Amino acid sequence: MKSLLLVAVGVGTLAAITGAAWLMRPTVDEQFAQCTGSAVAGGDIGGPFELVSETGETVTDADVITKPSLVYFGYTFCPDVCPLDSARNAEAIYLLEEQGVDAQAVFISVDPQRDTPEVVRDFTDVFHDDMIGLTGSEEQVAAASRAYRTYYRAEPADDPYYLVDHSTQTYLVLPEHGFVEFFRREATAEQIAQTTACFSAAAG
User: Fold this and answer.
1) Topology of domain 2-203, per CATH?
2) What is the CB neighbour count within 10 angstroms for residue 23?
């Protein structure tokens, strides 16, 4: 009975996350219509945030989103998903560099208790020298997560090896336009690079 209950809870959580992802599809105007397969009206995603950079400086979204950005919420102690997604996002940036498209990857920690600026810097530097790592206070991280409608929940912190359950979509955010697209985990680096290049060209 207990195992069936856990399965039911897991399926319910997955359905909720999948449903939330569908509802947050951006409303894409004609300027970007050719860059996305479909658009469904949803609420506002993204917007102002204040976090701490990997160099220890307090920064805002205006300081960070200065070029097409692949924004991902995760944490450095993540055993599998975050490193894989970060590596894929970094690969997409390398592919864009080869095409002459100036873009960047941004990693926002949802584990501020362990992820100091130094820890986040060491993590992001593994994947790309220019990947921007951000952390902050619990309040700052929660506010950024709310802005992007992400989900995260840490296990009891009395265990130093606690894990953090979190959503895994990557957001494409453009300066002056904000959030325009998101990518699920199954998206490849090539697909992300192609879509990002299209949005970048359309943005002018």
Assistant:
1) Glutaredoxin (3.40.30)
2) 12
